[in-house]
């Protein structure tokens, strides 16, 4: 089964719209990678300040290939050029062990 890798970014409330704006202009490179299955930008609605950037991959190797690729750098160009929006980030890793979709 697939693997899920989530980048959990802490973003102060006053910069949340800016993060969403950056993603509105994101490179879109990730979806061209072999083994890419899904991406979601998850904005908190419960008063917390952590955004989840959810990605899903065919395998760990596919995820790591993207992490070490030019596409990853291109996908983070605004981050590199304009500095971070968040104050911290934490990479979460999961195996998908069961699933069901509507
Ligand atoms: C220091 C750690 C990281 C920070 C602060 C960060 C932040 C950001 C930001 C602000 C963007 C929007 C584009 C930009 O501003 O350049 C972005 C794009 C993205 N990030 Fe990260 N990121 C980090 C690492 C990661 C990791 C480890 C993952 C894997 C789950 C990830 C997944 C993504 C994806 C899928 C995109 C969209 C890329 C595309 O469209 O090609 N990020 N990230």
**Separation of termini?**
18 Å
Q: From the helix content, strand content and strand pairing, which structural class follows?
A: alpha+beta
DSSP strand tally: 4
CATH class: Alpha Beta
Rg from Cα:
14 Å
State which percent range the strand residues make up. Answer: 25-35%
Helix share of residues? 25-40%
CATH topology: Alpha-Beta Plaits
Neighbour order of strands in the largest sheet: 2-3-1-4
- Ligand types: protoporphyrin IX containing FE
Low-confidence stretches: none
What's the shape? Answer: globular
Mean pLDDT: 96
How many domains comprise the coordinates? 1
The arrangement of helices and strands along the chain is: EHEEHHHE
CATH architecture label name: 2-Layer Sandwich
Count of discrete alpha- or pi-helical segments spanning 4 or more residues: 4
* Major beta-sheet overview: 4 strands, antiparallel
Give the helices and strands, then pairings.
Elements: E1 3-10, H1 16-24, E2 36-42, E3 50-57, H2 60-67, H3 70-75, H4 77-82, E4 88-95
Antiparallel strand pairs: 1-3, 1-4, 2-3
The structure holds protoporphyrin IX containing FE (HEM).
Tell me what you see in this structure.
This protein is of the alpha+beta class and 102 residues long. It has a single domain, classed as 2-Layer Sandwich (Alpha-Beta Plaits), CATH 3.30.70.100. Helices cover 28% and strands 30% of the residues. The chain has 4 helices and 4 strands. A 4-stranded antiparallel beta sheet has the order 2-3-1-4. Strand 2 and strand 3 form a beta hairpin. It binds protoporphyrin IX containing FE (HEM). Protoporphyrin IX containing FE binds next to strand 1, helix 1, strand 3, helix 4 and strand 4.
